[in-house]
Amino acid sequence: MFASTRAYLSVASDFRPSSIADCYGINGELDLFKFLQHQEKCSDLARAERNALLQHHEESDDDAVTTSTKRTRRRHCKALTPYYFDEEGNMIYLKPRETVWWHLYVQSPLVDDKKFNHKFRRRFRMAYWRYQMILVKVVRHDLFRRWSNGKDATGKSASPLELMLLGSLRYLGRGLTFDDLEEYTAVHEETHRQFLHVFIQWGSAVFYNQQVQMPRNK
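^ thats the sequence. predicted structure below, dont judge the formating
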């Protein structure tokens, strides 16, 4: 276990209040001293968490494969920024197929639920059935072979095409940044940026001609 991770656990388990609820006395009034301790603890936890993340990245760089001709480092576009600590204090990176977006919109969508469909349309600017229709077309097109063949150039699992398409729709429909998409999907922002350019190319050259027809008469 990293020293910084042990420091995080030490702060998390110290005597200071861990929540606002712990700052109230028996009479229901806020204890100002406890509240200040709680604020200080939150600041210390954030600092310890940042230190643990930085140390983890440094250790990952040290583990990069070294050859006689060149030093090969892990590709940054596959570094999953979202993470959490397990019960033992180990840092665990969140995987795309463990995110809320994957479970909510891909694995277990409530397609018969009126509220789900209303929120999906508002969040992605189209009905869920239309998203599925576009997904089928995207999966079959050669422009997206990089994501649809299941493996990337290094042999690792490619980013899920379902999440990549959802990311582009949210970017275009609601103006989210690529960093926001990384937070929601656990897919690196640069991967989302590259996919968006391909998606726009496909949309303007292929999908547009399939969906838009000019009037034939007055």
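The first helix runs from residue 3 to 12.
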